[in-house]
Amino acid sequence: MAKRFFHHFCPSDIQSKYSLIVFDDNKAPFIPLTEYYHWQIGRVSDSTALSYLNALEVFFYWLKHKSLHLGERITWDKETYLIKTAIKQYLQKEFQCKVRDQEKYERVYLTNKSNKTVNHFLAAIKGFYKCMISLKLYHHKNPLVSLEVEQDIREDLGIRKNKPRMPQIAGTEEPKSFRKQTESYFKIVNHEWVPEIIGDLDLPYIIYNAGEKMKWSLRDEVIIRFMFETGARISEILGLTIGDYRNRTDKHELSAFNKGSYKRRSKFLKISPDTLKLLIRYINVERNQYTNNPNNFKNLENNEQIFISQRGTVYSYNSFYNNWTKITKSVDIKLNPHKARHWFVTSMLRGIYEMSNSSAEIEERKKQLIEYMKWRDADTINVYEHYYDEDRYRDLHDKLIQNYLHREKEYLKSKTKNQINQKSTDEFITKQNNNFDDEWLNEFYEGMEDE
């Protein structure tokens, strides 16, 4: 019997209105989470919908077996105040957060023991109850929304008596604080997003080697090499078309859409010659086995998807993620595909510092990296910069320690040599004084001690 909530994707040979079904720890279908997942599709990306589902599966198992109010378990469909109580318990006990009541909402303080995914969980559970209310499966107010704050937002008046606020562009009123206006009942008050830094230079090769041992498909090999070589999001890679390759004049580049560009090709990806060879081989050989329109690369239409499933349809994130998980688990690594993007930036920044001859050259190459990544906020690179400040200090410290050890060895050698020379001198002096009666000298020292 499974000791958790879990999900399975619908097999390709079975007809069902659900592409995925969630099961509880008794292996019974759990419809609320199943409906929630499908409700999210189209509203958020497939990867986000799946990550929200993973977070809620853990919570619902906890809710069923560990939540407690007046000696009873709390079910997901209970009144609003009971769900709030359960979520507060969960944040405190499972995420190690401190939660403080602020009359109209709860302040959530992250501690050094808090899980990094607190905000992710709160977004997932808020969306869940929004979905349940929309589908008329939950008959109370959304427990993740502060009704009082929501009412305050609606009734917020401007400085003119009994008049609504003027638009911010008018410049006649103080801008509203986002934190004061958010409707969320649980507010994280000391949270700052920090991208994860992955500095293991050998990470791609560990994954490549694991994939080969798992007999990965050529399609997955090409995709994973794209991930580490380009720093692109997995959704951007899976969305590539034949035309995206033909649009670029450089034979090692492809056009790609960016997050928030609404499929408009606003960036490019650059791959290695070896990966290009694998890509062409995949298109001309493996891909043709699963398409109704087998053609070599030169004869395919521009709008043809590059990566397809074994059914000839678009290769989805969920299908790729299943294969990716099998590969990473085989080498006992827990790694989200998005971490390859962080690895790419980390490696590129390392290369910038190693290849540049001046601070001006470093700054210019950093600007090029920012432009390539198409970051909305150029300051994102500062987090990686901080990592390299620490990394360069480690190198400096290591060299300093090496110098210490070297000087210590030299000192010990020198000291040993001096001891040998001193020993020879002492022996000489002793031999020279053997003919003298030194009793008077002892008496002299004894006399000094008495004074």
From TrEMBL:
PROSITE patterns: CB, TYR_RECOMBINASE. Residues 184-398 form the Tyr recombinase domain. Keywords: DNA recombination, DNA-binding. One of its GO terms (biological process) is DNA recombination. InterPro entries: CB (IPR044068), DNA_brk_join_enz (IPR011010), Integrase-like_cat_sf (IPR013762), Integrase_catalytic (IPR002104), Integrase_recombinase_N (IPR010998), Tyrosine_recombinase_XerCD (IPR050090). Residues 27-133 form the Core-binding (CB) domain. GO terms for molecular function: DNA binding. PANTHER family: INTEGRASE_RECOMBINASE PROTEIN MJ0367-RELATED, PHAGE INTEGRASE-RELATED. Belongs to the 'phage' integrase family. This is Site-specific integrase. It comes from Chengkuizengella marina.
